[in-house]
Amino acid sequence: MRPKHFTAALALAAGLASQAWAQPAVSLADAVESAWQRTSQSAEVSGQARRALAERAGAGALWAAPPALEVGVVSSRQRAVAATRETEVGIAIPLWLPGQRAARKGQVEAEASAASSNAAAARLRVAGLVREAAAEVALQHAEVAAAQANARELDALAKDVERRVAAGDLARADTLSANAEHLTAVTVLAQARQGLQAAQLRWQALTGLQAVPPLATDVPATSVDEHPAIRAAAVNVELARQRLSVVRTSRSEAPELVVKARREVTAGEPSINGVGVALRVPFGTASRNEPLMATALSEVELAEATQRELQQQLDAEVATARHAVDSARQQARDETTRAKLLRERATLIDKSFKAGETPLPELLRAVTAAAQAEAAVSRAQAALAQAASRLQQALGVMP
After folding, report:
1. Are 153 and 371 a contacting pair, CB within 8 Å?
2. Are 226 and 234 in contact, with CB atoms under 8 Å apart?
3. Distance CA 62, CA 49 (A)
4. Distance between CA atoms of residues 107 and 247, nearest Å
C-alpha cells in the first residue's frame, strides 16, 4: 500500500472516530457539571448553603437564644368561704454577652464563605476525574485509529502478495506470512476496540453522557495561589479563628432578662396586680471554659497546618506537571520525526520489494515498524493533551 494511501487511511480513521466521539458536541465544562450533579457532594453543598443562611438569620437576632415563657398558677383556700388564686406569667430573654454577637456574626459569615469555597474545591476534584476519564478515552481512540490503519495497510499488502503469488512472482510462503501479519493486526485492533469500549463505559458512568469532549492543550498563565483548594484552606483557617473568637467572648452561658406579671385574686376582695424584673447571670468556670478554649485553639492550629501542607503539596504537583508537559511535548516532536523516517524507509523498501530486490519479511518488518511509529505519534499527542490537562488541574483551573 502506498504511503500516501496509508496516511489517508489513518486520517480517515481518526476523522471517523473523532466524529463518532464528539457527536453531539459537548464541552468539558458541561461534562463536569453533569458529573457534579450525579455526586452526593452536590446535595451536601446545597445543605451547607441552606444551613449557612439559617445561621446568619440567627446571628442577627436581638437575643442570644430563643426566649422562654414561664406560666405559674397557685390556688389556696384561707377560709371556708374564701379562696385565693395567684397567676404568674413571665418571659426569659437570653442576652448577648459583650462582643459575642459580633463574634457570632463573624463566624456565620466565615461558615458561609467556607461552604462556598469547599464547594468550589469539591467541583475541582470532580473536574479532575472527568479530565482523566476524557484523557483515557482519547488515548484509546488513538490506539484504535492506529490499529485500524495498520490493519488496512497489511490487508492491502496481503492482497497484493496474493496477486503476485497467483502470477508466479512470489512463493506461497509469502502469502502465508502476509496473511499472518494481517490477522495479528486484526487481533490488535479488536483489543484496542475493547479498551475503547471500556473507557467509554467508565466515562458514561461518571458523567452520564455519551459524547466525550476533546481536552484543551493550552497551558494557562496562572499561579497555584488561585487554586480553589488553597482558597478553601484559607477560609477554613479564618473560620477556625472566628470560632475561637466566639469561645473567647462566651465565657459563660447567656445571661437572662426575666420579666414577670403577677395577678392575685381573692374572692370578695379587689385583685392585686404586680410586675417584676429579674436578671439571671450564670458564672463561667474553668471546668466549662478551658475545654472549649483548648478545642478552639486546636482547630486553629490544625487548619493552619493543613493550609501549609496543602500549599507545599500543590507546589510540588505543579512543578511535576509542568515538567511532564515539557517532556510530553518533546516526546511528541521526537515521535513525529521518527515516524517520518520510518515511513520513508518503508516506502523505499516497498519499492525495492516490488522490483524483486527485497524479500517480503523485510518489508513486513519495515511496514510494522512504520505503523508502530505512527501509532506512537497518536499516543504522544493524546499524552500531551493529558499532561496539559493535569497541569490545568494542578493549577486549579476549571474547564
Report:
1. yes
2. no
3. 23
4. 11
27 exposure class (CB count in 10 Å sphere: 0-12, 13-18, 19+): exposed
364-to-77, 339, 385 alpha-carbon distances in Å:
119, 16, 32
Q: What is the pLDDT of residues 191-231, one digit of tens each?
A: 999 999 999 999 999 999 999 998 877 776 677 888 999 99
Torsion, CA 75, CA 76, CA 82, CA 86, rounded to 10: -40
Question: ∠ at Cα 113 (110, 118), nearest 5°?
Answer: 120
**pLDDT tens digits for range 348-383:** 998 888 888 888 888 888 888 888 888 889 889 889
- Please state the pTM of the whole predicted model: 0.73
Instruction: Report residues of the chain scoring pLDDT below 70.
Output: 1-24, 77-82, 220-221, 268
Rounded to whole angstroms, the Cα distance separating 6 from 339 reads 13
Report CA-CA distances (Å) from 111 to 241, 250, 291, 355: 11, 18, 22, 80
Using DSSP's 3-state secondary structure scheme, residue 34 falls into helix
DSSP state string for 325-366:
HHHHHHHHHHHHHHHHHHHHHHHHHHHHHHTT-S-HHHHHHH
In the chain, the DSSP E strands lie at 68-77, 83-94, 256-266, 272-280
How many angstroms separate the CA atoms of 170 and 162, rounded?
Answer: 8
